[in-house]
Amino acid sequence: MNIPSEMSQAFVICVSAIFTQNILLTYFLGLCPFLGVSREVKTAYGLGLAVIFVMTTTSVLNWLAYRYVLAPLELHFFRFILFIIIIAAFVQFTEMVIERYSPLLYQKLGVFLPLITVNCAILGASLFMVIREYSLIETVGYGLGSGIGWFLAIMAMAGIRQKLAHERIPRGLQGPGIALIIAGLMALAFMGFTGVLQGQ
Amino acid sequence: MQAESKNIIMQGLWHSNPVFRQVLGICSTLAVTNLVLNTTVMCLALLFTLSLSALTVSILRRLTPRNIRMMVETLIIAFYVIIVDVVLKAYWPDMSRSLGPYVGLIITNCIVMGRCEAYANANPPGRAFLDGLFNALGYSFVLLIIATFREVMGMGTFMGMALPYFSGPHWDKWIIMVMPPGAFFMLAIVTWVFRSIGLPKE
Lengths: 200, 202
Fold this sequence. Notes:
The complex is a heterodimer.
Chain A: H1 3-18, H2 31-36, H3 41-73, H4 79-101, H5 103-109, H6 113-117, H7 120-131, H8 136-164, H9 176-191
Helix pairs in contact in A: 1-8, 3-4, 3-7, 3-8, 4-5, 4-7, 8-9
Chain B: H1 2-15, H2 27-30, H3 36-59, H4 69-91, H5 93-99, H6 110-118, H7 125-155, E1 157-158, E2 161-162, H8 175-178, H9 180-198
Helix pairs in contact in B: 1-7, 3-4, 3-6, 3-7, 4-5, 4-6, 7-9
């Protein structure tokens, strides 16, 4: 197999997952925490970092599990359960390791880890990776890119919402309503990246 | 019992509607609202999963140890989602392909887990089923409104059939409505309208 060309392919997939195919703004995955935990930049930052880490590692773990366990046994329909279990187990494991070895990091990220198990973006990334038949290196690029894309989107959203906190917003639009309009405008802005990457 | 059921129905459909009040679980369905037909199938899948998993969680509520409750609930939900996925793949492969990963994503749909956690594991089966069913209906009717606007304005069709005025030359199709930003804007508008109806006068 040609490693350099695959690396460059993975890079293209990574960049397109961040900008043109942003998992949140074009596929609507991970909307619940995006609307719920974006009131402050600090918490959004913690959650975003945790998502990048978990998404990259679980998509690789799920790729291995799918390729070497499910595909040979032809148990394709079983992937939902297996992926969910792997994600939940990995998150639990990470939480224990961080708590044991780095109390400081645990204070920053610990509270966000349980939230991540039910973040649909994590499972979504793994399912997309199966449907698009990525290779292992491409999966690394895709997981990382999707994570970074989600991080960017929630950081931008939190920044804007902090500024909006003191604005006068119609009562019916307060909270989720205005957040959705901001998300729509952000999705428009991200659409501007379409065409930056050739061969999409 | 009569009053109780009526209360559950009103809560699910309006007072704590999953979409415009709780804003939960829109992730897996918003993506397919550019076509009314796809939305209908997704909503039926959600209705099936939500009402039956609420029922199952409620039946098993005394047998489930507290600390692995979430895991058991996830497995129950995954079980029903797999049924939907396999049936769709076998009998309607085109639809299964066009919905892509979104059927599978019902597992992590926050509203399903939310109802199981908040209601089904503390209430008897009959009421849990009713609660799940009407939350799913409350969810579906809002998303169908969104899908109708998006498909009609964006493509000039309804369920794939061309509409007289909207597909004609006098209607300039709003392409943005079928693109992702259109979904966000439509959902924001629907949330705004429905929330304003319930507001007390100043």
